[in-house]
Design brief:
There is one protein chain. Helix 7 packs parallel to helix 10, helix 19 packs antiparallel against helix 20 and helix 19 packs across helix 22. The protein is built from 25 helices and four strands. Helices cover 64% and strands 1% of the residues. The N terminus is likely disordered. Strands 1-2 form a two-stranded antiparallel sheet. A two-stranded parallel ribbon has the order 3-4. The chain is mainly alpha-helical and 544 residues long.
């Protein structure tokens, strides 16, 4: 495969005769985008995607032509916004190439074949590399109609065919992939049994299909376990590959080594800030957990009201009609203390206002539905989670930014939770980095994250960090996107405000960021400020 920095320069180097025949309009780019997306969908055989070695080799071979066709676009005279759309397609191509050259999840990770997801994701597309065609239950209205129940049942009957193909495709030797995949399959089994229980009375055929899919899932889990003794290789991708992915798919100017330095800095800053807050608050009573469903409902709903009123009163963000509904839909319900709640419940059960800031995710998703971008290329999720620096960076950044903006001025003990969150995200992100740098195993990464999360609220054996470190192994770079994305957004704020010294208005900035779409932060910097240096630093170029 050709050098991708070279691909960036092809269009400019084309002879004038060829440039005259090249596609040159943004409308043509949009048409190309839809054709490109159709190409990326694996061939389907009776509802089962084809990830066999021959099918994947053919897809990768065909990618060269797509690169050439994209490079042939003559973007002379295009607006910055239109040029950004070109880059969005290019990074998706880079992501697919990276998947074929490096990660190869269909061959390396048994958990790639999870076929049923019962819960929604809070970002534009489910995190990580996932098999095409997996059942996303939240996409169906509840209670299920008979038509939807029949559709889901039919898709569940393909579980056996999916796992028969998986047994042929999986040739990787990464020990931690095989080890952690067993837990993924146990989780799918339990979710399917839960589905069967919930639909038994109204949709017995679906319940039967769910129970059979659960049986097949356990058989696949057992097969994974039987293969595990012979799987002793590394699962991480190495520093050089990690850096390439960050620069060419996520358009971030930070190498593996850069990210280690930045994450360490954020980790110790969070710990130091926490201890200073604790010292200041030493005479105050500590926060306690909510104890009843009534208290939970009252305080969570009050937190939504308080947060939205704060955003409006302090002129931080324009409040749209859909925002309140988006936040209230995520209030959830009370879980008794004797049941394992997990790390984030340790935060929200002390004060629910904190995670309302991180729920910026759900405002993002509502905006995608209610106020789609004018460009079709930005109306849906970017492939390969290339949106992560913006989606996770903004949600994480809002926690600390809203504290500094005054949200927690009358909640001194709650300020401590902000630093706990940052420390946990930095610690788990470092765990992911060390896994891919081949410096830690999965178990060592979970222990590291647990050790460096204050208050002992992240046990290494708990479901939260076990799931997170597995996912960060599956999707290089996602584990750091929360903190590194936050840092990139802080860069954006600094440059945007510098250009408007004395005239900066936060409410205008937030609306501009939201209107740009959920795309890599370096591209938003370019669009909002005209400064493309972050992008050029990532690519090691002086422009396309």
């Amino acid at each position: 495969m050709r050098s991708f920095c070279v691909v960036l320069l092809i269009a400019a180097a084309l002879p004038s005769q060829m440039r005259a025949q090249s596609p040159s309009s943004h409308d043509e780019l949009v048409e190309f985008f839809f054709a490109w997306r159709a190409f990326t969908v694996p061939n389907m055989n009776e509802g089962v995607p084809n990830y066999t070695e021959s099918a994947m080799a053919a897809q990768h071979s065909a990618l060269t032509d797509w690169y050439d066709r994209l490079a042939a676009f003559d973007t002379t005279g295009w607006s910055v916004s239109e040029q950004i759309d070109w880059y969005l397609i290019w990074i998706e191509m880079n992501g697919l190439d990276f998947a074929h050259r490096v990660t190869r999840p269909w061959a390396n990770d048994p958990a790639f074949y999870v076929w049923y997801y019962p819960s929604p994701t809070d970002v534009p597309e489910r995190e990580g590399p996932n098999i095409h065609g997996a059942i996303e239950l939240p996409r169906y209205a509840w209670p299920l109609s008979e038509e939807d129940a029949t559709t889901i049942a039919a898709r569940l009957t393909r579980t056996d065919a999916v796992y028969r193909q998986a047994r042929e495709n999986l040739t990787g030797t990464g020990h931690d992939f095989w080890k952690t995949s067993q837990r993924s399959m146990e989780g799918q089994h339990d979710d399917l049994i839960q589905l069967a229980s919930e639909v038994e009375s109204l949709h017995p055929t679906l319940a039967q299909a769910a129970r059979e899919a659960a049986r097949v899932t356990l058989a696949y889990r057992d097969w994974i376990g039987n293969q595990l003794p012979g799987k002793n290789g590394p699962s991480g991708i190495g520093r050089q590959n990690y850096t390439w992915n960050q620069r060419h798919v996520h358009l971030l100017p930070y190498s593996w080594e850069d990210q280690v330095t930045l994450m360490k800095r954020e980790l110790v800053r969070a710990h130091t800030s926490l201890r200073l807050e604790e010292n200041r608050n030493r005479a105050l009573p500590r926060l306690t957990h909510m104890q009843t469903p009534e208290e939970y409902d009252r305080r969570f709903n009050a937190a939504v009201t308080e947060y939205l009123e704060f955003l409006e009163r302090e002129e931080i963000m324009p409040i749209k009609d859909y925002m309140e509904a988006a936040l209230r839909a995520r209030v959830g319900s009370f879980t008794p203390s004797e049941e394992l709640r997990g790390f984030f419940s340790e935060i929200t059960y002390r004060d629910p206002i904190v995670m309302r800031t991180h729920d910026y995710h759900w405002i993002d998703l509502a905006r995608l539905r209610e106020e789609p971008h004018s460009s079709p290329i930005r109306q849906g999720p970017l492939m390969h989670n290339a949106f992560d620096s913006r989606a996770e960076g903004m949600a994480t950044g809002m926690e600390e930014m809203m504290m500094h903006a005054g949200l927690l001025d009358d909640r001194p003990r709650t300020r401590e939770l902000i630093w706990i969150l940052l420390a946990q995200r930095a610690a788990r992100g470092l765990g992911g980095l060390y896994q891919h740098g081949l410096e830690m195993t999965f178990d060592e990464a979970t222990e590291f994250a647990s050790k460096w999360t204050p208050w002992n609220v992240l046990p290494a054996e708990g479901g939260t960090i076990q799931g997170e470190e597995q996912f960060y192994l599956q999707q290089p770079g996602y584990g750091t996107s929360y903190v590194i994305g936050k840092i990139a957004i802080e860069h954006l704020i600094a440059e945007y405000a510098r250009q408007r010294e004395g005239q900066f208005r936060l409410v205008e900035f937030m609306e501009a960021v939201n209107s740009a779409g959920i795309i890599p932060v370096s591209l938003i910097v370019w669009e909002l400020t005209g400064d493309r240096s972050m992008l050029d630093e990532a690519l090691g170029t002086s422009g396309r």
